[in-house]
Amino acid sequence: MGCKDTSKLIVATSANVQFPIEEIVIQFEQESGLEVDLVVSSSGKLCSQIEQGAPYDIFISANLDYPQYLNSKGLTKADPKIYAYGQLVLWTCKNIEPNIDLLTSDKIEHIAIANPKHAPYGVATVEVLERLGIYNEIESKLVYAESVSQCNHLISSEAVDVGFTSLSAVSNDEMKSTGNWIEVSSDLHSPIEQAVVILNKTENISESRKFFDFMFSEQAKEIFVKYGYQIPENE
Fold this sequence. Notes:
The protein is an alpha/beta fold. The chain folds into two domains: 9-85 and 192-226, D-Maltodextrin-Binding Protein, domain 2; 86-188, Periplasmic binding protein-like II (D-Maltodextrin-Binding Protein, domain 2, 3-Layer(aba) Sandwich), CATH 3.40.190.10. Helix content is 34%, strand content 21%. It contains nine helices and ten strands. The chain has a five-stranded mixed β-sheet. The chain has a five-stranded mixed β-sheet with strand order 7-6-8-5-9. The termini are far apart.
């Protein structure tokens, strides 16, 4: 009984997709009888940890770039696969109507965004602000969070006036009736291609493959759609 349970999977997941992944894990555990531990952080930080030897089995990223980078370094079992496309929203928990045009006004003093150095949703946010030609004008108002999860905390606690986050963050049961939000046009930023990959560090290749495949099951697709993600057409 003292032997280590090597069948327990360690899944590193981007903060933006935490809520749907938690639901997917519950269903996977019920169907497979396997146990899953989640490690939640920004995609960039998780990528760095993996490169430094973190013993994760699966990496669920908020974009395609980080898994592709790990693949180019020979740290993955196969090419990453896109499981969903993310949607950016502008969210506030203060008594104001969220509006992109409002960001340049004196009414807005602090705007939360996920750090673009680590978080793909932060990269998308900067693209939006640059495409609208207002990035330089409001840069001093930006408050950088280490991940979407931390960004959500800044917004929900009203530490900032508004913030950019993922649609999934405002679609979960805890937050769906909190504050006001609007979707940001996907034409204003590059597609947020979210990908998953099995890592070379895994000692549970069969179990990892089962979880990887479950990410593309009908059950998982329904959960992703519920949280505002788009599913690739070929899936």
